[in-house]
Amino acid sequence: MAAPAPRTVVVGTGPVAEAAAAELDAVRVPAPGALAEPAVRSAGPVGLAVVVVGRADADATVARVLGALGHPRPRVLVVTERLELPDLARTLDAGHLSGVVMAPWTPGNLRRYADAQLARWVRRRGGRAEEVAQDRPPEPEPRASGLLRHLQQDPDSAAAELLEAVESVLGPRPRLQLPPHVRLTIEDDDVGQLFLVLSGRVALSVNTGVGALTLHHASTGPLIGLFALTGPQAATVTARTTTDCEVVPLTVEQLDRALTGEPRVGTALTALTVRALSARLRRAERLHVEKAELATELQRTLRELEAARAGLVEQARMATLGETTAGVAHELSNPIAAVTRGVEHLSADLRVLLGGGEDDVVRAAFEAAETREAVSAGDERSLRRELARATGATPSQVRRLVAAGVTDPTRARTVLTGPPEELARVEAAAGIGATMRSLRTAADHVGRLVEDLRVHARPDDPGAPLEATDLAATVRDALGLVEHRLAGLTVDVRCDDDLPPVGSRPGRLAQVWANLLANAADALDGSGRITVRARRTEDGGVVVEVEDDGPGVPPSLQGRIFEPRFTTKHGVVRSGLGLGLGISRSIVVQHGGTIGLESEPGRTVFTVELPALRTGPGTTAAGAPTTGAGAPAGRDGIPPGPTEEKEQR
């Protein structure tokens, strides 16, 4: 069953509305609200609403009509007796106004306008214009003006009709048969004639600072040399045939004679000129849009190039810093080794100088101070009270004895009953022992730091295969590198014992963890907790999470957090290189992994997933045993490295 034909509805009261409904043979309703009645809605779709506007606000009336009709929205034709309509601006701005008719109108014209609007409504929805008003007797087809008829013709037909009108005055005109690459006009030369292109294609080009630029073929049109119509002047473009062409040349004088002798020439010429200028205007508008889009794309590319340049500069700086660091580490290795050996020799020599046996109080104080751990204030007060009760010494003597590490009552009595200078000798020996312990601890710390720097600064060979790497060891190295930035923070490291080896180049993964730890430290600003977790994944890989309880990254910035030269601290964008996270992502991707971010106030987690290296069981690339489930734990729960294993053995 065919769909009902679209209808016209007249909205309004009074003689104008009645006359409109009579001419259109349409249903008339007195007010917009009546359009929502079932009887009106059930009669079929309304394609055109003829709204008769009196003194009421026109915008408001049209809005009520459209609201009552709903969708699909009909076209709106306003009929009025008012010469001034200041109240249709909103309707026009919204695209609802299809036309305005002044009452009274010439009989028949309103019906012609209405049928045209209904036909547009049908075509917009994919129908055919023949569906309009099938229940009315056909009106005689109005004769279109010559200009509009020519504008609706295809270019070839319009050119042929122009030539026929010209030849009716001038007689037959010669046709030029031209091969490709023939210039019809030359840029900057005088234009004295027009060319009517009957067949073939012609391209327009202009000279620019980067060479000749060919304009779009579709914007050329069948008339070449339009500027000749405005008087003697130079051509702004070069017109050149691109295929075999048939053209008719017309001088300005010949065209003037044809215009005088035949009115059709003017109509056809105007139509072709409007079509050509319209095509060139549309092309110019598209070029303007393309130019704006290209400018935006160029700006984006420029930003990327600037970021890449900044990254290269930073990489070069880091490479130089790495070389310097490697040199410094090498130069520090020997002095630190000398300090370590010197401490051991000095300790042995002091034992010889102090003499005595194991029961010697002075020597015992020295040896105890070398290995004694720091005592809390509460424990120290408890030791003073016990020693005072056991020996009856004065508070000053008790304080000095405990400070020197003499807490055994028997040894304390020996010191107190000995020569007056005995307590001073014990204090001095304990002080020397504590100093030796501090020197040994500092030398060990500097040695570990130098080793971390040496590994971190080792240059990469891009062509070298990935080495089997103990991931927990890289976390430990990173902690050593950024230890100075973690002051005041609680750092909790939880690495599973069964982590498989991952493929990497020395120092690269440590750089990732160092960047993530430094980023977390900056977010916490001296107070908070950082948790590092490393575990095996179900597919045999490794997941490392670096979590902090800082303020988090705002959702609007999380998508840019890995961009080069972008940084955020406490949710506020600040200046700086901002390359740490970008470099970290690059390193992770190079190792076949992924890095992601989850953040909310109080919890920010960077998650790195890395595939395990497929090597022989139990060995790394260097042949060192990997950490197994039974390996002892080192500092902070991290499986020990070679140095720690040696110390524990």
UniProtKB/TrEMBL annotation:
- InterPro entries the record matches: cNMP-bd_dom, cNMP-bd_dom_sf, HATPase_C_sf, HATPase_dom, His_kinase_dom, RmlC-like_jellyroll, Sig_transdc_His_kin-like_C
Q: Which segments show compositional bias classed as Low complexity?
A: 615-634
Which reaction equations make up its catalytic activity? ATP + protein L-histidine = ADP + protein N-phospho-L-histidine
Species the sequence originates in = Ornithinimicrobium kibberense
Q: Spell out the residue ranges making up region: Disordered.
A: 614-649
Q: Which residues form the Cyclic nucleotide-binding domain?
A: 147-259
Superkingdom classification of source: Bacteria
Question: Under which EC number(s) is this enzyme classified?
Answer: 2.7.13.3
Q: Which PANTHER family does UniProt cross-reference here? A: HISTIDINE KINASE, SENSOR HISTIDINE KINASE
Stretches of the chain forming a coiled coil according to its record? 284-315
Q: Which UniProt keywords apply?
A: Coiled coil, Kinase, Transferase, Two-component regulatory system
Q: What is this protein called?
A: histidine kinase
**Annotated ranges, domain Histidine kinase:** 443-614
* Catalytic EC class: transferase
**GO molecular function: any one?**
kinase activity
